[in-house]
From TrEMBL:
Its main location: membrane. Its EC number is 7.2.2.8. This is P-type Cu(+) transporter. One of its GO terms (cellular component) is membrane. The keyword Transport applies. The chain crosses the membrane at residues 288-309, 321-341, 362-380, 392-410, 553-572, 592-613, 914-936, 942-963. It is found in: Membrane. Keywords: ATP-binding, Copper, Copper transport, Ion transport, Membrane, Metal-binding, Nucleotide-binding, Repeat, Translocase, Transmembrane, Transmembrane helix, Transport. Belongs to the cation transport ATPase (P-type) (TC 3.A.3) family. Type IB subfamily.
Length: 975
């Protein structure tokens, strides 16, 4: 039996192989094979362990035996030699931890128990009002056994959770969020990447479902099938290299038997985000209007009509004792606002207090309840007394709730705008595409319009002028210009010919193209950009820690401050320590003190504090993505803001990255044909751009000087010498192709003539590639890589920003110095290998300098990781470069400036947001507490305090939205 273990899953080469013993017995020997447990409908998982204390094969047999008795363990293979074990089990029936405990219970130690493969899911969180809410959700999630990491984004209203699927699942995670008092809904799970949902017609019984499931499971490339008989749906995990949605639909239809015909169609789960956002906006709007329906009359009856004699006199008519019509009407109208419209604040307060925390809802509930129930006390006292005179605060309670709801309504409207850039990106992909079928000669046989979701790898798609490119691919026929501005920010249309790559979501302008699909579904550049931006918007920036720390003690501090304010006014009032004329008519000292206390409670609400950072990060990352700069979250933004030195790689970064050979010269008796053949054979296996240029030039030269192209012998013992060149044996001759460092390392003598040739070319910023045959220099190629036209302007602009530029390259000193001089870089590190580049960065960091590294994301990976900010330039469609903090989709150096400038503007905007968020509180709290009242008679009524609190949140979100108007500081001449 041949087993393949991939991603923690054990798969068999064939279904029949599962029943074959591991060791085939010799002829004539019977071996009893234990009956296999029938769990075909269950999902298997494999864990690999290192077991200690195994002394012989009987120990291994004992472990296999004891695990075999464990319900859920399907099979166990233990090596008696090294103690390695592979155990297949059903996660629904047994956990990896239970398996470990069973092994240890049998008297063996488990030396290596690997971290379980983490699953990732994203949830939509409902009901979060401020930073303390998001922290509460995080705490609730981290208390769940099996969750290793949880990040909750307040502005995005989402959570990203890393968990061990052996210990918990998405149902338990959602339950934990709901127990904490918030709503939760699954957006996606980590295994959604290559998953398709199909709607099945013609399934009327369990037998039909079993037939379809069996057909699908036996299909090549299908990893897992889940049938939902009630909904007539099937969910399939598949390998995109082997199959795709269209083939799976066809496979379902092939399962039809006789009169029973099955039909399958693509089922796309509804996109709930937009619907929910609209629903949330509608809810706040309706609640605000309902609140206004009652609050406006309350305001008129308490503040407007009493001043309009004789129109308001009827409100003073007394029904019983001192109870007036106006007071009763205000009570009746305020009650629905307090308990029906304001119910959300009670619910939020209950859940917050149950979690032993406090949030905005607690402050609002305290403030409105104090005003409402004191007013009820006034009503009861007026009803039962013939002499009592008191002022109710019903308008305070009603108007406070109305203003807060207005603020939340405007806030959700504005927050919807912060993710506009991301929404535009997700809508770029067209809904349909034209699938072409061709015969063996390349002639078009058929053409049909299909859903973009049904495109599979290697499909040929026809893209007509004016149509969008549906997926990433390579042009195989036709010529056109494609506008890639929506993905890369590059305004100029790019010419496309056979062999060129196209990106899904871009616009074909003038010609007809036939494109072979290379990346489909979640693998496309557009999908990866969206995933990166979503992850960035969820990531918490270090600067946000300030808001998180403040929010922990803010609400309790505010409650204490409000109580002290009330005492500070009430006690001196009772003691007669301030003049009686300070107390307004129809009010006593207690009521004045209560109003000041309620105003402090309300004006200090920390809602805006939690929005200051995430809203700015959301807008900035979305704006950056629309301009071809992918910033991986607030952490990358904050680091880029601090950058003082930018280190540039040379090849492909400062230069075009497509080297061309400008001359070739011989230094030996070898003929040009033999010289070219040797160089081609040695370099043909190298992926380096210079090697490709040498091979291309050598082949052209060979065809010019030779009679005809001949087969070149393959190099044996081929070896890459990082940062130096390559070596290999061509025929009986040892060939070295590379720089001076390689020649010296291999003891090849470099003569005066060769030195002079190298020196002359290096002064012209050319790289010399030396070719040694059997220990002697046979000849050389002079290679040049043109400098990018914008390089000089970018370096100059960085200097004007107070940022120094350094070049680090594996090329020789003379060439590096010539390039550096041309672009305006003063400091150069040449002849440096990839690890050496990382060391140079660490040296600078040791001096306290924040360093950004700009490279091509391939051989510069160590340096990109070592730098404070790694910028991968020229990534093309390969946008998911793990090493980089910032991905620059285009090969344009101007985006380095854009990334740093956008980071600076974003961090400054975040700081301004904190001013807006805390400014209302810092200025508003003393005024609300009545500090100005003794001097100029100004006080902040509770309803006005509520308006200030709402304005604080709206100010922060609108401030962040101003980043939408960001423009690049440098514009390409081609733009």
């Amino acid at each position: 039996m041949s087993l393949i273990i991939q991603n923690g899953k054990m798969e068999a080469n064939g279904r029949a192989d599962l029943k074959a013993p591991l060791l085939q017995p010799p002829d004539g020997v019977a071996i009893a094979v234990p009956k296999e447990k029938d769990h075909r409908d269950k999902k298997l998982k494999t864990i690999k362990l290192k077991i200690g204390d195994i002394k012989c094969s009987s120990c291994a047999t004992s472990i296999e035996s004891v695990l075999g008795e464990l319900n859920g363990v399907e099979r166990t293979i233990v090596s008696p030699l090294d103690g390695h074990a592979a155990i297949s089990y059903i996660p629904d029936l047994v956990t990896a931890q239970k398996i470990r405990e069973t092994i240890e219970g049998a008297g063996f130690s488990v030396d290596e128990f690997p971290e379980q493969e983490m699953s990732v899911c994203r949830l939509r969180i409902k009901g979060m009002a401020c930073t303390s809410c998001s922290e509460s959700v995080e705490r609730a999630l981290l208390m769940v056994n099996g969750i290793k990491k949880a990040v909750v984004g307040l502005a995005l209203e989402e959570a990203k959770i890393h968990f061990d699927q052996n210990l918990t699942d998405t149902d338990h995670i959602i339950e934990a969020v709901e127990d904490a008092g918030f709503g939760a809904e699954l957006i996606s799970s980590g295994n959604d990447m290559n998953k398709v949902h199909l709607k099945i017609e013609g399934v009327n019984s369990i037998e039909d479902a079993t037939t379809i499931q069996a057909f699908l499971e036996s299909s090549q490339g299908v990893n897992h099938v889940e049938m939902d008989l009630a909904e007539h749906k099937v969910t399939i995990n598949y390998d995109p290299d082997l199959t795709g949605p269209r083939s799976l639909i066809q496979r379902v239809e092939e399962a039809s038997l006789g009169p029973i015909i099955y039909h399958a169609s693509l089922y796309v789960p509804p996109r709930r985000r937009e619907t929910e956002k609209l629903q949330e906006i509608r809810t706040y709007r309706n609640q605000f209007f309902m609140s206004c329906l009652f609050s406006v009359p309350v305001f008129l009856f308490s503040m407007v009509l009493p001043m309009l004699h004789p129109y308001g006199n009827w409100l003073e008519y007394r029904i019983q004792n001192m109870l007036s019509i106006g007071m009763l009407l205000r009570w009746i109208l305020c009650t629905p606002v307090q308990f029906i419209v304001g119910r959300r604040f009670y619910v939020g307060s209950y859940h917050a207090l149950r979690r032993k925390s406090a949030n905005m809802d607690v402050l609002v509930a305290l403030g409105t309840n104090a005003a409402y129930f004191y007013s009820v006390y006034i009503v009861i006292k007026a009803m039962t007394s013939k002499k009592f005179e008191g002022q109710d605060f019903f308008e305070t309670s009603a108007m406070l709730i109305s203003f807060i709801l207005l603020g939340k309504y405007l806030e959700v409207l504005a927050k919807g705008k912060t993710s506009d850039a991301l929404a535009k990106l997700t809508e770029l992909s067209p809904e349909t595409a034209y699938l072409i079928t061709r015969d063996s000669d390349g002639n078009v046989v058929s053409e049909m319009e299909i859903s973009t979701e049904l495109i599979q790898r290697n499909d040929v798609i026809k893209i007509v002028p004016g149509a969008k490119v549906p997926v990433d691919g390579i042009v195989i026929d036709g010529q056109s210009h494609v506008n890639e501005s929506m993905i890369t920010g590059e305004a100029r249309p790019i010419a496309k010919r056979p062999g060129d790559k196209v990106i899904g979501g871009t616009m074909n302008e003038n010609g007809c193209l036939l494109v072979k699909a290379t990346h489909v579904g979640s693998e496309t550049a557009l999908s990866q950009i969206v995933q990166l931006v979503e992850a960035a918007q969820l990531a918490r920036a270090p600067v946000q820690k300030l808001a998180d720390q403040i929010s922990k003690f803010f609400v309790p501090t505010v409650v204490i401050a409000a109580f002290i304010t009330w005492l500070g006014w009430f006690i001196p009032g009772e003691a007669g320590l301030y003049p009686s004329h300070w107390i307004p008519k129809a009010m006593d000292g207690f009521e004045l003190a209560l109003q000041f206390g309620i105003s402090v409670l309300v004006v200090a609400c920390p809602c805006a504090l939690g929005l200051a950072t995430p809203t700015a990060v959301m807008v900035a990352t979305g704006k950056g993505a629309s301009q071809g700069v992918l910033i991986k979250g607030g952490d990358a933004l904050e680091k880029a803001y601090k950058v003082k030195t930018v280190i540039f790689d040379k090849t492909g970064t400062l230069t075009v990255g497509k080297p061309v050979v400008v001359s070739a010269v011989l230094f030996s008796s070898f003929s040009m044909e033999e010289f070219c053949d040797m160089a081609t054979a040695a370099e043909v296996n190298s992926e380096h751009p210079i090697a490709k240029a040498v091979v291309e030039h050598a082949k052209r030269l060979r065809q010019k000087v030779g009679s005809s192209a001949v087969h070149v012998a393959e190099a044996k013992d081929f070896e890459v010498h990082t940062g130096a060149g390559v070596s290999g044996k061509v025929g009986e001759k040892m060939v070295l192709v590379g720089n001076k460092r390689l020649m010296r390392a291999c003891n090849v003598t470099i003569g005066t003539e060769v030195e002079n040739y190298i020196s002359e070319n290096e002064q012209l910023a050319r790289t010399c590639v030396l070719v040694s045959i059997d220990g002697k220099i046979a000849g050389a190629f002079a290679v040049t890589d043109p400098v990018k036209p914008e390089a000089g302007r970018v370096i100059s602009y960085l200097h004007s920003m107070g940022i120094s530029a350094i070049m680090v390259t594996g090329d020789n000193w003379a060439t590096a110095a010539a390039i550096a001089k041309e672009v305006g870089i003063g400091k150069v590190f040449a002849e440096t290998d990839p690890m050496g580049k990382a060391d140079r960065i660490k040296d600078l960091q040791g001096k306290g300098i924040t360093v950004a590294m700009v490279g091509d994301g391939i051989n510069d990976s160590p340096a990109l990781v070592a730098a404070d900010v790694g910028m991968a330039i020229g990534a093309g469609t390969d946008v998911a470069i793990e090493a980089a903090d910032i991905v620059l989709i285009k090969s344009n150096l101007e985006d380095v400036v854009t990334a740093i400038d956008l980071s600076r503007k974003t961090i400054l905007r975040i700081r301004l947001n904190y001013v807006w968020a805390l400014g209302y509180n810092i200025l508003g709290m003393p005024i609300a507490a009545g500090i100005l009242y003794p001097f100029i008679g100004i006080r902040l009524p509770p309803w006005l305090a509520g308006a200030c609190m709402a304005a604080s949140s709206i100010s922060v979100v609108c401030s962040s939205l101003l980043l939408q108007s960001y423009k690049k500081p440098l514009h390409s001449a081609n733009s």
